[in-house]
Design a protein that fits this description.
The chain has 196 residues and is α/β, with parallel strands linked by helices. The protein is built from seven helices and seven strands, in the order E-H-E-H-H-E-H-E-E-E-H-H-E-H.
């Protein structure tokens, strides 16, 4: 299976980098091919320009600025995000990637009267997210899990029918001792080794 792993964290030595590395190792050990898209390392510009917004609904024109990212999405069988959760959602860099890359016609069909949003990325059969969160689990549930819902529910309906989703979150990251962080890395590896 070809996995597009979208990684988003500005600090190279962060715990999220350890998650990324463990995820890649587990996926490759399980026989998957990993395409790492490191948004900060690649210098991705998350800002949707005025010209891009004007061309947002025009097939072709809306794809041109992000053609390479769209090609990587279209080549993937699975899409996995590794990122911190800040203010209940993904970092601005990752949200900007969604804004700029997930454009109509290339990734979904716009809804029409009597017809909901349409699937386009039917090649993607799995969407997963692995995140660190400062909030305790109960507070995250109380807040409605907006980041999880955006990435898993919001994107999976644009992918293959029956698209599988998964979420792995390390809560209270700021006070998590080494033992709990190590266990979380083991959980990540175990989940990704059985990706199917």
């Amino acid at each position: 299976m070809r996995v597009l792993l979208v990684y988003c964290h500005p600090v190279p030595e962060s715990f999220n980098a350890a998650i990324r590395d463990r995820a890649i190792a587990a996926l490759e050990e399980a026989g998957h091919t990993v395409d790492l898209l490191d948004l900060y390392a690649e210098g991705f510009d998350p800002v949707l320009s005025a010209d891009e917004r004007r061309a947002y609904h025009e097939p072709g024109a809306n794809e041109a600025p992000v053609a390479d990212h769209l090609a990587r999405l279209k080549a993937a069988d699975a899409l996995i995000f590794v990122h911190p959760t800040w203010w209940y959602g993904p970092p601005a860099m990752l949200k900007g990637w969604l804004d700029r890359v997930w454009v109509p016609h290339a990734t979904f069909e716009m809804p029409r009267p009597g017809k909901p949003i349409g699937r386009v990325l039917t090649n993607i059969r799995i969407v997963g997210a692995i995140s660190t969160l400062g909030a305790p689990r109960w507070w995250w549930f109380f807040m409605g899990m907006p980041g999880r819902r955006m990435l898993l529910t919001g994107l999976s309906v644009l992918c293959a029918p029956g698209c599988k989703t998964f979420w792995l979150g390390l809560h209270e990251m700021d006070s998590a001792p080494l033992e709990r962080r190590t266990r979380f890395l083991d959980t990540v590896a175990a989940r990704l080794k059985r990706l199917a």
